[in-house]
Amino acid sequence: MFLECVCAAISGTAGNLATEYASPYLRYFFRFGKIVEDFKNRRNELESRRDELKDAVDEALRQTEVIKKGVEEWLTKADKELGEAQSLEEEIERNKCFNWCPSWGWRYCLSKKVEKKNLCISKLLETCNFPLVGQRPPLQGIEFLLPKDFMRSESSTLAFNGIMKALKGDGVNMIGLHGMPGVGKTTLAEVVGKQATEEKLFDKVVIVRGVSQNPDINKIQHRISEILGLKFNASTEEGKAEELFKRLKGEKKILIILDDVWEQFELRNIGIPFGDKHPGCKILLTTRLRQVCSQMNCQEEFKLNILSEDEAWALFKDNAGLKDASPTLNDVAKEVAREAKGLPLAIVTMAKALKRESLNGWIAANQRLKESRHLDNQDVCGGIYSCLKLSYDYLKEENIQSCFLLCSLFPEDYDINVELLTEFGIGQGLFCHINLIEEIRREIHLALSKLQKFGLLLETDDEYYVKMHDVVRDFAHWITSRGENMFMVKNELTEWPKSEIFGCYTTISLWNIKIVNFPDKLEFSKLKTLFLTGEDYLRVPSKFFEGMKTLRVLFLQRVVFSMEALQFLTNLRTLCIMRCDVENISSLRNLENLESLSLIRTYIDELPEELVELRRLKSLYIFWVGDEDRHVPPNLISR
């Protein structure tokens, strides 16, 4: 007891001296416990900050952000310091017994080591100031992955080598690639973009798909801005063009690929600096029409031709999965492949349609192609259409074929909303043997999936949308240009067609029209489906609908009309009104056979009580915009 008191007195006196004179040597001896306590607190703080930062990094990676270099370096240092701190703490724990009878040399060395680690951790904590751990990178153009069905041919190799030479040379800013529909221009342009990226010929490579007949300036501007990581401040096309012009001038070397150009347009309207204004900016355009290359002042032009018979067979065999096929099946398949006439689109579509088909199926398909030749008098399109018709015929089910034709009612390069498509299909009577609307919806979704599998519809990045290749869309219109099920699909009409005999049409689809004077007293005796969309708000008179008593599906977009005009449409099953200005919505009560009603972005103060009279209504979809209160009568929906 006496010894303990003496030790305590000496320790207290020495501790006071250490505090008074602040000698680091005495601190290492007599404030060991305090130093260790500070060390553990610092270590715990560093571990907590490290874990928080790692969580933030994980979330940033989920959002496809690129982690900042400083963050990664800090985490590496933190892991190193925590590892060393763990070893140091284990050393302290192993020598706890020395707290009662300390070895002064051990305590001095360990205390000094812990104090040094404290200082390192403190400095590291001071540098952990990261407002953002990552940032979204500009898009890199994932479309430049080599297409699975791409096969180099003599023609594509010549065109590819010529384009690459032109891109590497000086004095050539505009390059044109032309060829017939389905010959593979888009695919070759993607390969060029991939090669230019790998060889680092340009700082940026941008591909704009589907420029089409009526270039959407706004869409093109936004596609280019995505790759450049540019966020527009302007709202007008002119303002965006100015911002894009300045941004592109900042890229020393850039390649812009404009795919599927149909007519001449001004690059300056988009904001693309060209020629003397930016020698480092080069354009590659693809087009079906050779004169477009001349109109766009292409300094180099390249034509992509169809495949030779051997090349076509190699592509067909690969896509049809005929690697281990019998000699008999191979012989029949070669005859079928010849009917594609070397057109890559037709080859791939036919091959996928017949993949895993039996020998009898191949023989029947071959005979069907041969017998249909007399119907196809067009030199080029007839060959494509007869090949595509093979895929269409192999759908076999009328409901799926109707889904396919329904997709052709939308404009070129249009992202087709699957839910809208489903409502239209229900109105047309698809899968009418099924009573539950949810089961019909499921069947239509499966039909669309089958169409994608057969290559008749394209997949998109969004599962809620599908697309149709423009050549396939033209083929669908070719199918519906004769017979009992005739379609009329037109875009941007400024006046009503005077020479048309509308009594023969079952489907009419008019998009972005600017018609001022609509006819009245026209008889649409067979019309079952009508799409009517205005470029701006289109005023349609009530009498226009009088002769449409057989109508089952009506889609109106950007149209001004009175609901009373629809009172004649007693056979209507599906009504979709989008972005319209409507009057007298209570008149909907006259549509006694209506099964599906969609009111999308259409201003309506309240749902009318008269909707209860729609006894057959199965689907009601309403999408309102704005903060205004809308009134729904009590128990209306339940009734």
TrEMBL record:
Keyword ATP-binding set for record: yes
Any single biological process term in GO: defense response
Domain of life where this protein originates: Eukaryota
Keywords, alphabetical: ATP-binding, Coiled coil, Leucine-rich repeat, Nucleotide-binding, Plant defense, Repeat
Coiled-coil spans in chain: 36-95
Span of domain NB-ARC: 163-322
UniProt key word ATP-binding: yes
GO molecular function: ADP binding; ATP binding
Pfam families: NB-ARC
InterPro entries: Apaf_helical, LRR_dom_sf, NB-ARC, P-loop_NTPase, Plant_NBS-LRR, WH-like_DNA-bd_sf
Annotated family: Belongs to the disease resistance NB-LRR family.
Protein name: Cc-nbs-lrr resistance protein
Organism (species): Theobroma cacao (Cacao)
